[in-house]
Structure to design on (385 residues):
């Protein structure tokens, strides 16, 4: 018999979207131990400039930061304005260099990389059919689905994204990732039926963004992690290496969920958008791509967060707001007029462990906090840095 050596008791990867509150902070901080993954290499890190801390001003306005984070199960909070950090806080055991799960905020990053691939000439336009890059989908319900349909969640494919239902499509997808079966997710997606014509309606579908990431990989001819490193991670001076989860060992990156990165590097993604896809004078995104992402494509029938009314190219949209939203409290809010970005990383307790109203209350609290920041830092004359 082998010796009794110490070992970690890891949460079950296949239940990732069903973790109870006791496991969420642990599981979200160790995603690279639960799933196959590939590292996004950094280059030479660049430190953020720092402005004056706004915690006292927020407290005076009735929004004490520590209480807000504790009450709403937040692991990270970052506020950036004019390229300077105004607030940076950690909770739930998260450290500065720890990588927290992006959940679906990485979908919005995939849209940025599509723009970079268009500027590089690897993709001619979003009108390209998905089957041009993924011939495995020919003869399936994805015939005539374009990259734009995948960007806007309008593929017309029948899909259930119900996190509390173990038999939903999104949980079957999650279990396929945990099983690390080469081609398993692609086979699952190819077997799905069509529900309506492509482009006719919005239906949130994490599998669609998996396919978008796979199309992007084929188009640029390299792993998505390497492309992200070359186009954004190294030029932007990200401080920490990140990672993508993979559908299998050495396989396709998951462009739609559960990558991992550190809090300040989430903020640099937001700054990249605020800078219109330009880094140190070098244009990475085509001119007009940020505007294209932020153009309303479909109204959102059941808002994922208060104040969100439409969906663009993998970004959620509200009045003067473009947001990347992820399961259990991951959020990047970008307010371009105020030159402001807010990142929240969370572990909101989820059904079936708590009533759905609990998650809604936490989402409302974050929206209220962002609105308070907007009032404090917005306008023509924000507080001095």
């Amino acid at each position: 018999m082998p010796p009794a050596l110490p070992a970690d008791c890891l949460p079950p990867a296949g239940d990732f979207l069903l973790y109870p509150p006791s496991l969420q902070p642990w599981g979200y901080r160790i995603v690279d131990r639960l799933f196959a993954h590939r590292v996004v290499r950094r280059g030479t890190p660049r430190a953020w400039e720092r402005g004056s801390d706004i915690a006292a001003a927020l407290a005076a306005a009735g929004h004490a930061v520590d209480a807000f984070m504790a009450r709403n199960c937040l692991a990270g909070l970052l506020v950036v304005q004019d390229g300077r950090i105004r607030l940076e806080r950690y909770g739930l055991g998260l450290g500065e260099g720890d990588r927290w799960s992006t959940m679906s905020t990485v979908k919005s990053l995939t849209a940025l990389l599509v723009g970079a691939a268009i500027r590089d000439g690897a993709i001619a336009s979003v009108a390209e059919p998905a089957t041009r890059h993924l011939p495995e989908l020919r003869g399936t319900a994805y015939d005539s689905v374009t990259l734009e349909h995948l960007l806007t969640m309008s593929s017309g494919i029948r899909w259930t994204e119900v996190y509390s239902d173990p038999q939903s499509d999104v949980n079957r997808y999650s279990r396929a990732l945990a099983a690390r079966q080469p081609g398993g997710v692609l086979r699952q997606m190819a077997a799905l039926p069509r529900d309506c014509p492509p482009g006719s309606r919005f239906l949130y579908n994490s599998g669609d963004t998996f396919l978008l990431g796979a199309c992007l990989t084929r188009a640029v001819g390299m792993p998505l992690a390497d492309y992200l490193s070359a186009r954004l991670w190294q030029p932007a001076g990200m401080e920490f290496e990140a990672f993508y989860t993979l559908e299998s060992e050495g396989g396709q990156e998951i462009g739609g969920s559960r990558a991992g990165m550190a809090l300040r590097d989430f903020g640099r993604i937001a700054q990249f958008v605020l800078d219109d896809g330009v880094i140190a004078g070098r244009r990475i995104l085509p001119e007009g791509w940020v505007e294209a992402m932020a153009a309303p494509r479909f109204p959102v029938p059941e808002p994922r967060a208060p104040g969100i009314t439409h969906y663009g190219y993998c970004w959620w949209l509200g009045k003067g707001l473009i947001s990347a939203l992820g399961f259990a409290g991951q959020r990047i809010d970008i307010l371009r007029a105020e030159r402001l970005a807010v990142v929240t990383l969370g572990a909101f307790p989820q059904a079936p462990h708590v009533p759905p109203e609990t998650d809604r209350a936490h989402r409302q609290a974050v929206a209220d906090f962002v609105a308070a920041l907007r009032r404090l830092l917005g306008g023509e004359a924000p507080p001095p840095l």
